[in-house]
Amino acid sequence: MAGSSANAALAALPEIAKAGPAGTGGDAPVTARMAFTVNGERRELDLDLRTSLLDALREHLHLTGSKKGCDHGQCGACTMIVNGRRINGCLTLAVMHQGAEITTIEGLGTPDALHPLQAAFIRHDGYQCGYCTPGQICSGVAVLEEIRAGIPSHATGDLTRAPDVSEAEIRERMSGNICRCGAYSNIVEAMTAFAGDPSSRSQA
């Protein structure tokens, strides 16, 4: 019975996803043409369907700001913004994001024109080794947009009103971004300062 179920499931797979016996040529990677907008620029790639979004950006587009930390979605170093929402690039396949708008740390600011949150991280020493910082900043930008949009979190006490930009809200929402150097209090200070600057809202 189990064998019949397995055969039925295999038969239902698209032809593109099937691999033939080893040595027959059927075990070659299956590739597809993918296109998305990365930091405002349309990019097209031929990729193995198993390629993660993180690897597509780092290995194929050479955008190495997004870091590969744990590669298991546990550290947040690979956080990027896709269609306005923050995601872990290591946990999703590039093929799932055809036509998406993707923003990495390179798209937020440059050394000569820092994003206001990048500048706030510098002023408040929101980093030490810096490895997690790109993910922290991408997540931070998206977190503050979530709060401004009224999206609640586990730290939101009153669900009938919009959440405040409080330390509790920031710590709860940023809990998926690990800083092994322990710069958490400075990160909170940087995000609070950025959120409290009216001029920064149009640049988020």
Automatic annotation (TrEMBL):
<keyword id="KW-0001">2Fe-2S</keyword>
<dbReference type="Pfam" id="PF00111">
    <property type="entry name" value="Fer2"/>
</dbReference>
<keyword id="KW-0408">Iron</keyword>
<dbReference type="InterPro" id="IPR001041">
    <property type="entry name" value="2Fe-2S_ferredoxin-type"/>
</dbReference>
<dbReference type="GO" id="GO:0051537">
    <property type="term" value="F:2 iron, 2 sulfur cluster binding"/>
</dbReference>
<protein>
    <submittedName>
        <fullName>Aldehyde dehydrogenase iron-sulfur subunit</fullName>
        <ecNumber>1.2.99.6</ecNumber>
    </submittedName>
</protein>
<feature type="domain" description="2Fe-2S ferredoxin-type">
    <location>
        <begin position="32"/>
        <end position="108"/>
    </location>
</feature>
<dbReference type="InterPro" id="IPR012675">
    <property type="entry name" value="Beta-grasp_dom_sf"/>
</dbReference>
<dbReference type="GO" id="GO:0042597">
    <property type="term" value="C:periplasmic space"/>
</dbReference>
<dbReference type="InterPro" id="IPR036884">
    <property type="entry name" value="2Fe-2S-bd_dom_sf"/>
</dbReference>
<dbReference type="GO" id="GO:0046872">
    <property type="term" value="F:metal ion binding"/>
</dbReference>
<dbReference type="InterPro" id="IPR052914">
    <property type="entry name" value="Aldehyde_Oxdr_Iron-Sulfur"/>
</dbReference>
<dbReference type="GO" id="GO:0047770">
    <property type="term" value="F:carboxylate reductase activity"/>
</dbReference>
<dbReference type="Pfam" id="PF01799">
    <property type="entry name" value="Fer2_2"/>
</dbReference>
<dbReference type="InterPro" id="IPR006058">
    <property type="entry name" value="2Fe2S_fd_BS"/>
</dbReference>
<dbReference type="InterPro" id="IPR002888">
    <property type="entry name" value="2Fe-2S-bd"/>
</dbReference>
<keyword id="KW-0411">Iron-sulfur</keyword>
<dbReference type="InterPro" id="IPR036010">
    <property type="entry name" value="2Fe-2S_ferredoxin-like_sf"/>
</dbReference>
<keyword id="KW-0560">Oxidoreductase</keyword>
<keyword id="KW-0479">Metal-binding</keyword>
